[in-house]
Amino acid sequence: MEMDKIPNATEKILDLLERFRSQGASGEQTFRILTALWRRQNLQPGQLERLAREIRLMDTPRERPNHQDQNYIVGVLNVLRDYPTDEHESLGLKFLQAHDSVSLAAYNLLADIGGVRSFHALEHYLAEFRRANEGYVNWSILHLEERMAFMSRRLVNEGKLPPSAIRSPVTVEEAGRPIRLERSNTPNQAVAPGTGALPESSGLIAWVVILMCFAALGLLWIFLRQLTRKKKAA
Length: 234
Known about the structure:
mainly alpha, single chain
């Protein structure tokens, strides 16, 4: 509301972003500025081009990009979610197979503005993600499935997909249920495709909790044993 009182606020925020980028600002600083632009929701085509120009020239980061670029790409993709164009959809498809948060930002962008080609790309991405995390109740799967359900309803309402294409969000049990796809090369790891990252899974957490309980029992036994010895000595 305060920024609405400032003349040309969006243009000034863009100028600030470009100055910070040129001065090597941290990823957190640039992401905050991009978040302000995301909330503005009033960027004009020329302003959107200023944002998209840099990431269009970037290579898709198969490995983890530096922190500054990672936050910048994610922030720009978030801004573009409010501006559906073929160009922005192409940028989402470009970064869909990138690393970690960049890939997730591209997924969210395509779910919001993508067409039929993006729908099939997200279906493939989700199937690969579930295959890589087979047997795990991975909370990321719940989010990805929810976004796919939203996208299917949107495209059906727009007349781009038949009503039979509508998907329903999965339950927690379904998120961890094995799917019938080619087995992963790393069946014992929960990883996002192409990243090598270890997302959170309830199976892993359960084992950690069990180990911690055993460790606590061991410490309690040692404490009681020492206490008994002190009483006998007294």
